[in-house]
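Sorry to interrupt, but I need a hand with the structure work. Could you write out one complete protein record for me, on any chain you like? Just paste the record in under my message, thanks.

. . .
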Amino acid sequence: MEHPERILILDFGSQYTQLITRRVRELGVYSELHPFNFPIEEIRKFRPSGIILSGGPASVYEQDAPHSTPELYDLGIPILGICYGFQLISYQLGGQVDTFARKEYGPANVIVDDTSDLFAGFVPANGSSEISTPVWMSHGDALTKIPPGFQVLAHTANSPICAIRNAAKKIYAVQFHPEVVHTPKGKVILRNFLFTIAGCKGGWDAGSIVDRAVDEIRAKVGTQNVICALSGGVDSSVLAVLLHKAIGDQLYCIHINNGLMRKSESEQVTRLYRDTYKFNLDAVDASDIFLGKLAGVVDPEQKRKIIGLTFIEFFDREAKSIGNVGFLAQGTLYPDVIESVSFRGPSHKIKTHHNVGGLPDRMKLKLIEPFRELFKDEVRAVGRVLGLPEQLITRHAFPGPGLAVRIISDVTPEKIRIVQEADEIFIEEIRRAGLYESMWQAFAVLLPVQTVGVMGDQRTYDNVIALRAVHSLDGMTADWVHLPFELLGKVSSRIVNEVRGVNRVVYDISSKPPSTIEWE
């Protein structure tokens, strides 16, 4: 989509970088994440209203440390450096960075020395003459000499230089992380940068996303037909309703049952979209074909690629039978893109998402991906604007490859049955406890191990189910849900007693990072 205002975020490897993108969007300005070495020519084409340099784990003096081009500072575009970005700006513009300074990790109090722009709105508290605000620090190096043309805006007891400004060039930098919740007034700082310094006006919201997407889809599609991969999850459902709003009966939804869906899900999806929404819907049962191609495959990347390519084969065949089809619509999200591409110099691709990377050359369709720039909660907001029922909008995320990546071994019909039944029990009990809508995702995973058990005075040697439940805002970071022991006990008892082939249940208490939400 085209956006009148854009904030470019250059990623230097911080675990918080995606949070910067989120916070800027929450403030009503579109933002986009690119690697630290994004070429200067591409930056000019991007036409950003402002640029933010993220934090990162490196020292500016390290060999192979990520450095963006110094030409950045001569573009006349407002810049905000955060943490490593603060040090890089200082280093590249003639300041002094000390690698032997006292390190700071965690909470600190910043004393604000200037409230004219970046810290506008900060006032003394409790009758004090000093303006102090809590922040979150995470740095090993520190600035000991500011670059020429800069002035100090804030300090801490440990760091005499904690925020700097070159007002003439509109270059600002802070040593702490304004994007995290541990910096309570961080949003005020980001708002000041966006609206006071960069001159943004805002207006990025779900309503504007819908209006812009509808206009762009109509202009792009013309008189051709569009096929939409409709799984029945949040992303594909919102996508289908958006497309129908834009092009009506030129939309043909295709639901492919690959045998890897949740229990009874395919029947529910077909009934909902045929009876309630009256969409053109073709439901295809391809379970045997998908499972045949996955037979004996253990590697998760290979599973994803097989499933993605098989979906494409079916969409290609269906498109030819419909006629005049020029486009395939997918519910690709921004986190899919971020995880599928190595965005940071110091980091690596996390995993390949089957819906990222385009279509094979032999397929003559073009892609429509209106959500490629959106986070999950932004898609949910779009769904509310479009009037989708809340029960559908709040549904937990489900991976594109389905249960294939929740079976940590080769995929068989028996293993699918086990994980479907265990997952159904888990979700049923979470709903019964009134916790479903308070979490991002909950599911069951079938582990590739068997353990000894005792049932009815007989020895068993059966499978292990792992339960996973997480809180998240956008899927980029997540924390495990502290489910009540009583609930976990009830779920465990039901699974062991009701799901044939399981004699042990465990609970996953890992956060992302370092773990991912899905196991594969």
Notes: Residues 233 and 260 are 13 Å apart (CA to CA). The two ends are 31 Å apart (CA to CA).
